[in-house]
């Protein structure tokens, strides 16, 4: 397995290691019965209450679907990267797509050293209403109690837990573009060594959000989309989604202007129809508007509706965008529209579909319906042949981006609009 491209600095590792003994201001624990209730369409949910001096702000997320996977009598160890740092970190575990309750034991959170190995002294037990195990009902999700101490932004956080019983129909994220470690039979969640972890996958299981206590001025951005947002085209463990590059840009700003960056992309997802995961209209409330501390959403979804659909005009997609805008404004969330990028040369391209893409982009640019426009199309298209991606931004299939293309998307975002 190749060594991950990005690592924590020595200073950041030292600070993370200090969480084992550091005393810090943390958010109060949620009541034992404070489970977030959600349904399959994401139509209801209960937000978290911030402490007096801090608010709960999202630092990482992954949109979930029902996975074709089975787990049982083994430990799961996943690695995710935070965007902003803070105190009193909480994780959320979801059984949204499960058909029966799921029990997880020995949940721990640490900082990655390398592979499945955890940095010495950082693996901390996690409780849920004071309990060391948690049972999550079908169609539900639950937040952990705050984990004392601080976690820096850009940390490679390791979440481990033991799954005692066989579970099928796992709630999770299909294309993590990150290595998840699975153990032989037994509970290895508290171990900081990599011993016992003999299998790997590239899926995330049950974990769908991480939040931290941050100053009340700190907020988060959610990127809502399909595979182009999910990160298609990157190598495993590279952390080169366009949202990762956006996080790098924000990280260079003064501390009071930084924001959490949350990825709500699902590869293959469509805005108007169920396909891979719930349709975008159905999951928008759950995956975006109930995120802790959300201020702005960037909508970059619709190319799958065009490339796989049989529409004769842009009207259905435009109507869908209007519904997203109405939902966002009802929650006082800013909503930015991303133009749809070229796919000439991809297998499903036709001239008729290209005309619909152009109609959609013209509406996004000129209607004034969104609070702002991010012209992704202009940023990555070939100036000599605008129906296709510029060669340096094309991963090779004429739809998905190279690393340079995903970086270019991030640099098309005007940070002042966030």
State the secondary-structure class.
Answer: alpha+beta
- Count helical runs: 9
CATH superfamily of the largest domain: SGNH hydrolase
Tell me which CATH architecture of the largest domain applies here. 3-Layer(aba) Sandwich
Tell me the span between the first and last alpha carbons.
37 Å
Strand segment tally:
24
* Rounded Rg: 21 Å
CATH class of the largest domain: Alpha Beta
Range of helix content: 10-25%
> Looking at the structure, what is the overall shape?
globular
What is the count of distinct domains?
2
Show unreliable segments.
1-51
What fold name stands as the CATH topology of the largest domain?
Rossmann fold
What's the rounded overall pLDDT mean? 89
What composes the largest sheet? 8 strands, antiparallel
């Amino acid at each position: 397995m190749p060594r991950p491209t990005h690592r924590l600095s020595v200073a950041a590792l030292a600070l993370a290691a200090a969480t084992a003994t550091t005393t810090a201001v943390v958010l109060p624990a949620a009541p034992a019965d404070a489970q977030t209730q959600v349904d399959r369409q994401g139509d209801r949910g209960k937000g978290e209450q911030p402490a007096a001096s801090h608010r709960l702000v999202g630092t990482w997320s992954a949109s979930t679907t029902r996975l074709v996977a089975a787990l049982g009598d083994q430990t799961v160890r996943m690695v995710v990267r935070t965007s902003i740092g803070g105190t009193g970190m909480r994780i959320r575990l979801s059984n949204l797509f499960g058909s029966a309750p799921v029990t997880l034991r020995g949940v721990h959170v640490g900082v990655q050293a390398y592979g499945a190995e955890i940095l010495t002294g950082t693996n901390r037990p996690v409780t849920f209403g004071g309990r060391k195990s948690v049972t999550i009902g079908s169609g539900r999700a639950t937040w952990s109690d705050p984990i004392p101490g601080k976690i820096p932004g850009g940390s490679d956080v390791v979440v481990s837990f033991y799954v005692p019983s066989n579970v099928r129909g796992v709630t999770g994220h299909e294309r993590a573009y990150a290595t998840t470690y699975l153990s032989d039979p037994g509970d290895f969640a508290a171990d900081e060594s990599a011993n016992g972890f003999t299998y790997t996958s590239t899926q995330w299981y049950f974990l769908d959000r991480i939040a931290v206590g941050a100053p009340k001025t700190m907020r988060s951005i959610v990127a809502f989309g399909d595979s182009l947002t999910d990160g298609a085209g990157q190598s495993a463990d590279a952390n080169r989604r366009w949202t990762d590059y956006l996080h790098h840009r924000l990280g260079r700003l003064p501390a009071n202007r930084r924001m959490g960056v949350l990825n709500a992309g699902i590869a293959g997802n469509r805005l108007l129809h169920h396909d891979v995961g719930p349709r975008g209209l159905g999951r928008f409330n759950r995956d975006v508007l109930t995120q802790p501390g959300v201020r702005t959403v960037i909508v970059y979804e619709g190319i799958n509706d065009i490339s796989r659909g049989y529409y004769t005009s842009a009207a259905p997609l435009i109507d869908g965008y209007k519904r997203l805008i109405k939902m966002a404004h009802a929650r006082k969330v800013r909503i930015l529209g991303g133009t749809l990028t070229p796919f000439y040369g991809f297998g499903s391209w036709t001239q008729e579909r290209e005309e619909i893409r152009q109609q959609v982009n013209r509406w996004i640019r000129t209607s004034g319906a969104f609070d702002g426009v991010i012209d992704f199309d202009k940023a990555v298209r070939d100036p000599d042949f605008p129906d296709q991606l510029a060669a340096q931004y094309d991963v090779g299939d004429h739809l998905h981006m190279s690393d340079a293309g995903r970086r270019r998307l991030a640099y098309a975002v005007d940070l002042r609009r966030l």
